[in-house]
Design a protein that fits this description.
The chain is an alpha+beta fold. Helices cover 45% and strands 17% of the residues. It has two domains: 2-54; 81-172, no CATH class. It contains five helices and six strands, in the order αββααββββαα. The strands form two sheets. A four-stranded antiparallel sheet has the order 4-3-5-6. A two-stranded antiparallel ribbon has the order 1-2.
């Protein structure tokens, strides 16, 4: 009888260890798969090893559906202002604001370089990017007219005439091929 209880006890321990090891293996496999998914979406910034950013995704342009014939489309309005550069500016707007006239981005200075503020650092911003083309304005507030598409396009055209494509980070970093 004692031998039988010992066998049962050993078998129970063996099953317990097997289940524990199986559970640990499942956790390791899940962790590896989660890491692989995370790694495909994020990258380490070599200059600052502690800064983790989303991987830049190639910008694909999805034209906005045409409105009724009476009302000009966004593409028509961009074409009217930028002429032969219109297609590039639609790509810039898509990358900068998602072609959303209501977007606002904050710029901070880190290690002597101006870049998008980290979450929670908006109060430290020296400038903001406003509207459809994310036109840069010093201070922390976008003027209300910057959220109006036509005004924003004109402000962007003025900036383009003075600075060229280098006024937009997505061009400088070659997220959008600007030509």
């Amino acid at each position: 009888m004692k031998l039988h209880k010992t066998k049962i006890k050993k078998t129970t321990i063996y099953i317990g260890y097997s289940l524990t090891i199986g559970f640990i293996l499942l956790l390791l496999i899940k962790g590896t798969l989660d890491f692989a998914k995370w790694h495909s979406e994020y990258s380490f910034n070599i200059q600052n090893i502690f800064r983790i950013e989303p991987r830049p995704q190639p910008v694909t342009y999805h034209p906005v559906k045409e409105a009724e014939a009476k009302e000009p489309t966004i593409e028509d309005r961009v074409q009217e202002v930028f002429g032969k550069h219109a297609e590039t500016f639609l790509k810039i707007a898509h990358a900068e604001s998602g072609q959303n006239s209501g977007n606002k981005g904050y710029n901070c200075i880190y290690n002597g370089e101006s870049m998008a503020c980290k979450k929670g650092d908006e109060a430290k911003a020296w400038s903001v990017d406003c509207g459809f083309l994310q036109v840069n304005v010093q201070g922390k507030v976008c003027p209300a007219e910057m959220y109006e598409l036509d005004y924003n396009l004109q402000a962007g055209k003025g900036k383009f005439d003075r600075q060229g494509y280098n006024a937009w980070t997505v061009c400088k970093r070659r997220i959008v091929i600007c030509k």
